Amino acid sequence: MKAVADLTLDPRSPCIIGVGQRTWHPDGHHAPEPLEMWAQVADEVALDAGRPDVLATIDALHVVHCMSWDYDDPAARLSARIGITPAHTEVSVLAGTASQRMVNAAAERMLAGASELALVVGAEALATRRRMRQADLAPMWSHPAPPGGPPIDLDEWFWPTEWAHDVVQPTLTFAALDTARRARLGIDPDDYRSQEARVLARFTDVASTNPTAWFRAQRTADEIATVTKDNRLISTPYTKYMTAIMDVDMAAGLLIATHGKADELGIPADRRVYLRGWSFGRDATHVAERPFLDRSPAMEHVSAAALASAGVGIDDVAHLDLYSCFASSVLFATDALGLDSNDARGFTVTGGLPFHGGPSSNYTAHSIAEMVQRLRSDGRGFGLVSGVGMHMTKHVYAVYSSEPGPVRPPDYRSVQAKIDRSARRPVVGSLVRTSAGAIGCYSVTHDRSGVPTSALVVADLADGSRAYARTTRPDDLAALGEGEWVGRSIDLLPGPNGSNEFAPAQRA
C-alpha cells in the first residue's frame, strides 16, 4: 500500500475516493427511471469507498443534466431519495463537458474551504425512452417538471443564418470541421477515413473488454470505414460506426473528498486518486467565425494549462481518455497535445462514445470512473481526461494522479484571453447578390437509406468574411462525394428563407 506522508500537502486537496458505474444492457426489460439510476449508482459509489454510510455526510450534490426526463427539482428529489441534506446543490447545463466541470467546481469549493465531501452523479435512460416510443408507450416516471417551463435558450448558440442552413446537428458540424483538418494535412479523403477508422478500431479493443460498454464487439478498421447497409454514411466522412451512440441506459457517480476528509473517513491511500490540474475554455461559439476551421486554439491552451497546473507534460501521462463523440474531436485533441495518432497509449479507457456509449452530458463521469480504476491499479502515475461541448466549442481537460501533490485552481480568464487572441472572422448572413467564394470546410448529409440529401459548406469570401451555404442538387452532391473540395472555388447566391446556395464556380 502506498503511503501519503507529505506533511506539506494542503488538507483541502481534492481526491476521488469512490466511483460507481452501471449499464442496463438491453435484455427485454426497461431501465429504471433516472432518479432510481442516480440512487443506485450513489450506493455503488459509497460501497466502492468502503463506507456504505458515507452518503449521509455529503455536503455538496452535483447532478448532471438529464436528457431522458425533465424532473421538477433533480437535486432535491435525489437528496430525498438517498436521505441526504447537502448544503450546496447544483444541476449542470446540457454539455459534454458537464461531469468534469462539476468535479472541477467541487474541487474549487473544497480548496476555498466551502466543502469537504461532494457527490457527482448522472444517468440517462435514452435507450429505454427510444424503445418506449417504438412501442407507443409513455414513461410513467416521477416528479415531472410542470409543462410550460423555461425552454433551453438556444439563441446564444445559433444565429438565424445557422437555423436557415441547419447548422445545428453535431453530426454535420464535427464532420465538416474534419474536412478542414484533412485538407490541411493533404490526405486523400478515402485514405483519411481509413486512418480515422484505424484509430477507432483501437477504441473497440478497449470497449470489447469493458463490461459497462454498450457495444462490446471488436471491429476492424475496414469494418468501421466501409459503407454497408448496417454501417451507412451519416455525414461525410463519418459512417455510423464512427459516430457517438447516445441511446444508452447508463449511470455513473463520483465521490470527491478533501485529503483531510479522506483521512477522517479512513480511506486507504491506495483508494484515492487526486485531481492535480484542470482548466476550461471556449472556442468561438459559431463555427463560421472561428479563425481556424482545421484546429482548436481552445484545446491547445486548455490542455496546456491543465498539464502545467499539474506540473507534468504529456509524456508523463500514462492513460488518456479524449472525448470521442466523433473522430474530429479525438484528432483535434491529438494535434493540440502534439500526439501521433498511433500513440501506443491509445486515447480511451472506456471504449469511447461510439462504442462504450455517450450518455448525453454524462460521458466524462464514466471516463473519470474508469481513469480512477486505472490509476488505482497502477499505484502511481497520471491520467488525462477531456470533454467537449456543443459544436467543438467548449473544452475541459483534467489531470488525475494516484499520488498527491500541489494543487491550485486555474486562471480561467488568462486561458480564455490566450484563446481569444486570434481574431474571429465576420460572418455574412443572407446574401443579397451572387458572390465568389472558396470552400473552407464541408460535409454531405445522407438519409437512413444512404442517399445523399444535402450538403453544407462554410465558405471563405474574398473580403475575409465567411458565409454558410447549402445545396440539394443531386449532381453536386455526387461530386462532393469524390475527391477533396476544401479550397475549391464556388459561387454563392441567395436562396430561400434566408439561406444561401452554392454551386461549383465552373457552372456559373
Describe the protein in words.
With 508 residues, the chain is α+β, with helices and mostly antiparallel strands. The chain folds into two domains: 14-138 and 245-419, Peroxisomal Thiolase, Chain A, domain 1; 427-507, Beta Barrel (OB fold (Dihydrolipoamide Acetyltransferase, E2P)). The chain contains 14 helices and 17 strands. A nine-stranded mixed sheet has the order 3-2-4-7-1-8-11-10-9, sandwiched between helices. A six-stranded mixed sheet has the order 12-15-14-13-16-17. Helix 1 packs across helix 2 and helix 6 packs across helix 11. It is globular, with a radius of gyration of 23 Å.
Question: What's this entry about, in short?
Answer:
This protein has 508 residues and is α+β, with helices and mostly antiparallel strands. 31% of the residues lie in helices and 22% in strands. Strands 3-2-4-7-1-8-11-10-9 form a 9-stranded mixed sheet, sandwiched between helices.
Rg (C-alpha, Å): 23 Å
Low-confidence stretches: 1-6
What is the name of the CATH superfamily of the largest domain?
A: Thiolase/Chalcone synthase
Largest sheet: 9 strands, mixed
CATH architecture of the largest domain: 3-Layer(aba) Sandwich
Q: Strand pairing plus helix content: what structural class? A: alpha+beta
Give the terminus-to-terminus CA distance. 73 Å
Q: Count structural domains.
A: 2
Strand arrangement, major sheet: 3-2-4-7-1-8-11-10-9
How many β-strand runs?
17
Strand content: 15-25%
Helix content: 25-40%
> Can you give the mean pLDDT?
94
